[in-house]
Amino acid sequence: MQEEIHGNDKENGINDAGNNNPLPQFVLPDKQMRFIIALNRYNDLFEQLNYFAININELKLNEPNKIDKAFLLTGAKRLGVSFYERASVPDIARDLLGKILVTNFDERLTAARIVETEAYNGIVDKASHAYNNRRTRRTEVMYGEAGTAYVYLCYGIHQLFNVVTNARDIPHAVLIRGAEPVAGFDIMLERTGKTKVDETLTRGPGNVSKALGIVTRHTGMSLLGNELFIAEDGYQYKKASYASSGRIGVAYAAEDALLPYRFFIKGNPYVSGKPG
pLDDT class for 2, splitting at 50, 70, 90? Predict the structure, then answer.
């Protein structure tokens, strides 16, 4: 930065014939000089703020909404059976948005905040595996206790995680379609074979299960235990962020496919499919 020059010219020696500087010297008025100094300082501050903004965005991309593992195990409030026993499966599906799905298999903790769900309304819902009171070895868990995991294989590839709700013999369930990682990033990357945390990690029900280590052998597992559970930390999305639509991939259900049983957070990159 240039040295500030002002005051009496002769005292500063800028008009002396013996001046060593061959270039002419100019003196700015005090007000102009102070303005230039202030402008330089604001530019420096702007550059620093821009630097921090860039790095904060990079942090959010690499470790979005990071939550301490110890808090998830001991501080977060776990959902109790009364949450799952309610009669309205669409209400439960909507209320699960913002909650945290946690797995702690073999003391390897991973967790993700739920941003997309689908409700399945049992024997009257043509999109449900239990439609028309269908009972098979696979679906029997849907007729069991509320707050139980229902995990099934889709297309022989994807293992999809559902939450059983309502009362015994009323086979309601909620599919977890999308979730935003909050803990155990390195473990998720290892399980999925990915190299960085981005929206592809847990967008879509198959990816959610894969990243969190949920497989078909976990079907029937209680969500009230220590290995697989859903918790809340007080975080809430803005009301305007909540949206609903028809469910994805259930065209076979005819008019029931159009029911607004899919719930999601608008604008969240971990939401799968089209917004509406």
Answer: very low
